[in-house]
Write a structure and sequence with these properties.
about 170 residues; single chain; 8-stranded mixed sheet; about 60% strand; mainly beta
């Protein structure tokens, strides 16, 4: 998220989130943001859909029955790729800057290595049909300086701004 100080308050650009989730390049489709969405497009005349859902992983040993309160330690992203017929293209997945550890991924239940780090794109070239990608993005609490006010910070949980002091 981009945020900035404006007339003494923290402002976020919420209205443009859906405009920057997916892009298309010459090789295929690029996933840039992790937001529950559906994309319906075509590759070489073949209908392609990508559905994105998000869950949050809790700490190991979390027991909601006991009333424990724990902060989720990762975002779990499920990308379901459905094609009208099998088609080869590249799906590029952004590894966000806020990763607090190594991201992990499975495709149709099989572990797939991620060869890029934060602020880079991981490319998967394959023949897609009815496939599911599970991506685990570890996160932590952090602070981020407010632009033009280095003595002030926003508290963040991964990409989510929790609080700001202006």
């Amino acid at each position: 998220y981009d945020f900035w100080c404006c007339h003494g308050s923290l402002v976020q650009a919420h209205t443009v989130h859906n405009a920057h989730v997916y892009y298309e390049d010459s090789e295929g489709i690029v996933v840039c943001q992790y937001i529950p969405t559906e994309l319906h497009t075509q590759r070489s005349g073949v209908a392609v859909s990508i559905q994105q859902t998000i869950t949050h992983a809790m700490l190991q040993g979390y027991n909601s029955q006991a009333g424990d309160r724990h902060r989720p330690t990762s975002w779990n992203v499920r990308l379901t790729v459905t094609c009208a017929q099998p088609i080869e293209f590249t799906l590029k997945i952004r590894m966000p800057w806020w990763l607090s550890g190594e991201a992990t991924m499975t495709i149709n239940g099989e572990t797939s290595a991620i060869e890029t780090g934060p602020s880079a794109f991981h490319a998967i070239t394959r023949t897609w049909n009815d496939d599911t990608i599970l991506l685990v993005l570890p996160k932590t609490l952090s602070t981020s300086p407010i632009p033009n006010a280095p003595e002030m910070v926003a508290f963040m949980d991964g990409p989510v701004v929790l609080a700001g002091l202006c």
